[in-house]
Amino acid sequence: MLANYFPILLFVLVGLAVGILPVVAGRLIAPHRPDAEKISAYECGFEAFGDARMPFDVRYYLIAIIFILFDLEIAFLFPWAAVFKDMALADGNLGLFGFAVMTMFLVIILVGDAYAWAKGALDWE
Q: How far apart are CA 79 and CA 81, in angstroms?
């Protein structure tokens, strides 16, 4: 019975080894000689000012959610468009049903987009 779980245990152990061994090897082998140039700010060229944990404006999250909605819309639209011709040729009613379902999906997405636009979620000041 336990022999059935041995491959899973082996998989977990190999996964942990692949994740941990390079970090440990880098810590042991790599030279550690920090100087002022290595520990200076490099992202934007100047020292950080203010608190790094300041709250973000809600509009960043709103734009991200709207982007995900557009992305999901396209992710559903491409496979449907790829098989729509085959659906329509297989049976005329199936093609019409597939078209109606996708039209309802697009209308729901369009209503959500219109609501976001009306509320000013797409306006950036």
A: 5
